[in-house]
Amino acid sequence: MSLLELILLAVGLSMDAFAVAVCKGLAMDRATLSRAVLVGLWFGGFQGLMPLVGWLLGSRFSVYIVAVDHWIAFVLLTILGLNMLCEARQKESIGDASLGVRIMLAMAVATSIDALAVGITFAFLEVEVLSAISCIAVTTFLFSVLGVKLGNLCGIRLRARAEAMGGTILILLGVKILLEHLGIF
Hints:
Number of helices: 6
Strand content: under 5%
Distance between the termini: 14 Å
Order of helices and strands: HHHHHH
Radius of gyration: 16 Å
Oligomer: single chain
Largest sheet: none
Structural class: mainly alpha
């Protein structure tokens, strides 16, 4: 996976967290830098952890499914992308401004499930895992901090666009992986 592809993947994965961060910022009376950084740490941390878990699972079972690995990557990324596109069209409640452990843990896990699936594909694509995880975590952290601040300033208009952009990126990456492995691209 090239650096550009890795950055695009990181941006695509971070869009769920960005959208939730926008909603968090919207619900806050005042989005301080420390509150934005806390949201970024939760989301960035889990976005980095989940691909590692996925990679560990994928590596363990890669021997058995190496013949169809490109199809698995294509299907997982396409499903995740389509899900994000569907979420972009749904009206969603803004939520609350709480940064309590229970709420943030649930949100961090919920926004990083797709990163777990992507981590599984890393085992088949021979990705430099530590670089990929670092890129994903840092990108998500930055987008989450920005999301809280922008949400506090601009409102919920950004949520749907972020979800749609992230979904499109994931679908395109899945198609590219499939085409490369089929020798078409």
